[in-house]
């Protein structure tokens, strides 16, 4: 006969509560067991990261021996093989003449192989191109004379006597010289005949030997010149042009060369006006003045040359003088150049430097005088 016990409601609630607590306890124990197992596995399988401390030793080298006690070392042509990489356990040593708190690491590998890509890496960059500009390579020259300095002024004769072969030589050589100017150079072109003007200015009026004056338009301002008579009597009237420097650039050089080849010749020959503009009005002062003419500026040419040579020498300005196919200007031009430490050159009809002594000069002057008389006779006929 089976006996069955019936639980009271209070006993049933207590039993359910006990089961619930037992389930919660089992779940917490399972979670903690999993976490503990994960920690143990992490410690067991994950290796410690050890820091590789490189030992660097430096020592102070001996002071260098005096130069007179140093022995010459023999130069060996034997090519050494590339050494193998040093072992990481080896101590790396750096020799130093002074002790420093900062050590310089030794590179792991040294390559003795010469790269064929010099100048094309990340440090040097591209830039060996031939360029598309006008700027020069070995520096400018003018009829064989070296043109040097950061500030250069070309003072060029644009008188009507420069026509023909002289004009052809002058325009060609001047264009070439301007095109060779270095990028860091400042330059200016001063032209002269009776008046003097800056390249690009407009000469207004008829500047003839019989006219009493003419005008030059420079940067929207008008400058007047007076003439006391003849081809050599020109003077500044009131205001004097103050030429500005031109910075070398492709655009400026092209514009200057265009002016050189299109500027018209004007009557007269006066040296003191353009030399005054170049030597006394330029600010800052020029380093070099290139002065070229085909003739003398009246009976006082030597006096003018010596006066401006003295001014230029005191300002440490070098004047290079070129007499183009005109030995008559030899003495004055030479005094102007040599008085400033510059060079003088007499250029013949072939555009080459010609060496002449006093006898040769007198002979050429006689030949020229005869030629003028002959031409005059033809005109009379």
UniProtKB/TrEMBL annotation:
**Which residues belong to any copy of the VWFA domain?**
151-365
Which protein, by its recorded name, is this?
VWA domain-containing protein
- UniProt lists compositionally biased (Basic and acidic residues) regions at 350-381
Q: Which domain of life is it from?
A: Bacteria
- Residue ranges annotated as transmembrane are 27-47
Q: Which Pfam families match?
A: VWA_3 (PF13768)
InterPro entries in UniProt:
VWF_A, vWFA_dom_sf
Sorted UniProt keywords: Membrane, Transmembrane, Transmembrane helix
Coiled-coil portions? none
For the region Disordered, give the residue spans: 347-381
Instruction: Indicate yes or no for the key word Acetylation.
Output: no
Asked whether the keyword Membrane is assigned, the reply is yes
């Amino acid at each position: 006969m089976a006996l069955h016990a019936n639980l009271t409601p209070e006993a049933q609630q207590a039993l359910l509560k006990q089961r619930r607590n037992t389930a919660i306890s089992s779940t917490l124990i399972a979670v903690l067991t999993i976490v503990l197992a994960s920690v143990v596995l992490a410690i067991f399988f994950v290796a410690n990261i050890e820091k590789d401390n490189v030992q660097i030793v430096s020592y102070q080298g001996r002071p260098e021996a005096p130069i007179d006690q140093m022995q010459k070392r023999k130069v060996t042509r034997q090519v050494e093989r590339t050494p193998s990489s040093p072992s990481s356990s080896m101590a790396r040593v750096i020799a130093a003449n002074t002790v420093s708190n900062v050590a310089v690491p030794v590179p792991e590998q040294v390559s003795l192989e010469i790269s064929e890509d010099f100048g094309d890496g990340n440090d040097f960059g591209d830039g060996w191109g031939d360029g598309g500009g006008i700027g020069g390579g070995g520096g400018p020259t003018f009829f064989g004379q070296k043109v040097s300095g950061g500030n250069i002024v070309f003072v060029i004769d644009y008188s009507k006597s420069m026509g023909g072969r002289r004009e052809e030589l002058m325009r060609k050589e001047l264009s070439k010289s301007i095109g060779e100017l270095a990028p860091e150079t400042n330059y200016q072109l001063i032209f002269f005949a009776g008046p003097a003007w800056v390249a690009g200015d407009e000469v207004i009026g008829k500047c003839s030997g019989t006219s009493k004056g003419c005008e030059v338009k420079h940067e929207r301002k008008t400058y007047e010149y007076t003439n006391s008579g003849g081809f050599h009597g020109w003077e500044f009237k009131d205001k004097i042009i103050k030429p500005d420097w031109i910075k070398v650039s492709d655009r400026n050089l092209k514009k200057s060369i265009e002016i050189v080849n299109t500027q018209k010749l004007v009557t007269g020959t006066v040296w003191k006006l353009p030399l005054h503009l170049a030597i006394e009005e330029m600010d800052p002062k020029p380093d070099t003045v290139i002065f070229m003419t085909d003739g003398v500026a009246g009976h006082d040419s030597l006096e003018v040359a010596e006066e401006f040579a003295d001014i230029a020498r005191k300002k440490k300005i070098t004047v290079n003088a070129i007499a183009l196919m005109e030995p008559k200007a030899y003495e004055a031009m030479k005094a102007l150049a040599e008085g400033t430490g510059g060079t003088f050159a007499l250029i013949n009809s072939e555009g080459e430097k010609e060496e002449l002594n006093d006898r040769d000069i007198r002979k050429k002057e006689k030949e020229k005088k005869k030629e003028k008389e002959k031409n005059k006779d033809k005109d009379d006929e």
